[in-house]
Amino acid sequence: MSNTASRLRATFLGDAPKRQHRVPPKTRALQVGTAVAAFGVLGAFTGMAGTGAEQPRVKTAAVVSPVNDSAPLPAAPAPAPAPQPAPEAAPAPEAAPAPEQPVEQKPVDHIGAWIDEAVRVMEQNGVSRDQVDPEAIRTIIMHESNGDPTATNDWDSNAAAGTPSIGLMQTIEPTFESFALPGHENIYDPVDNIIAATRYAIARYGSVSDVPGVSGVRSGGSYMGY
């Protein structure tokens, strides 16, 4: 080691053999600083000395690009849409109700009503239903007056005798008065006229069905007055 180095070492380490007395602290700090600086300069010169061979160059490390954590991940495939139920078919519109057809009014059967009432009254007065045939009564009515309670025959022999046939079943007044029931004494009233004429037919022929005109029509013949 050279003398310079030895002195620096002695200064830095504070070798006692060559020192006569202790250096004051402040002076020592200055000496230490000077020694450090000198030691650094010496090191630099020492490094430069030597064989003079060129020091190998430090290869620059390859720069590795950091992984970019912020890069977006590939999007997950979208889930398949859930199957939707088939739309319900719209209900078929209700058919409009057919317009109501007017009910055909049947003609009122006045003749049938008059016959029914007359039969009821006769049964209440003891006339047997077996002797009363409503259809036979209708046959007589239609041939005698054509259903007209006010019909009057003014051309036959009875009319010539002054007692014309009157009403629904064309009875003369003497016959009507003989067979009318109490409370049914109006020759022009259809029910009263049926009662008197039917009782007369039963008394003379046994029943309305046996009247010659009724029997003739039912057998395919012609009607004749009773």
Automatic annotation (TrEMBL):
Q: Does the keyword Zinc-finger apply?
A: no
Name of the protein in question: Transglycosylase SLT domain-containing protein
**Annotated segments matching region Disordered:** 70-105
**Keyword terms, alphabetized:** Membrane, Transmembrane, Transmembrane helix
Q: Where is the composition biased (Pro residues)?
A: 74-100
| Entry annotated with the keyword Manganese | no
- Biological source species: Saccharopolyspora hordei
Q: Where's the Transglycosylase SLT domain?
A: 128-206
CDD domains recorded: LT_TF-like
